[in-house]
Here is the input.
Amino acid sequence: MKMMSSPWARFYSNSCCMCCHVRTGTIILGIWYLIINSVVLLIILSALTDPGQYHLTTAELGGDFEFMDDANMCIATAISLLMILICAMATYGAYKQHAAWIIPFFCYQIFDFALNTLVAISILVYPSTIQDYLQQLPGNFPYKEDIMSVNPTCLIVIILLFISITLAFKAYLISCVWNCYRYINNRNNSDVLVYITTNDTAVLLPPYDDPANGAAKDPPPPYVSA
Here is the structure.
């Protein structure tokens, strides 16, 4: 029987980075994001306990707005906690083979990829925004003068090349997580067997460990001698 395959089936693979399984790669990726967001949360909490250590004046920022105020700190803390929860769910889902637990992390990857794509498009459409952003940086920002001395066209090309490489890497990680989701989902649905008869009709068989399939028949009546 000729199998009908999806156009996206050619991109399906069980290997990640050509060295490990997609399930292992998703677990490693979830732990990596978990560590990063935990470090960010620790930095935010340390800034809350000692606000003067991370306080920047308006003159240093070159603008008329407050940095690390209470509203921004609360938003950053909530985002960090949410990311830790999403990464922990993805790691647990890949480890325990629960496909539904991976979906929030996959949605975060799609949102992050779309956001970076919009940044690349905005730089390509409005290249002057790079120079405007550099001029708004504080005067003591590291290598500010060196960056501004670079040819604007070369600077835009370098930034777009860096963003393109980042987007390609993010797209590959998205495919790895999606392949892990498909692998776990197909593995969980593999309990239903399909029996192909000679007249090309498919019959669904119940799982082998189905209680109804293995139910014992009633014993025969006891033998009574005449």
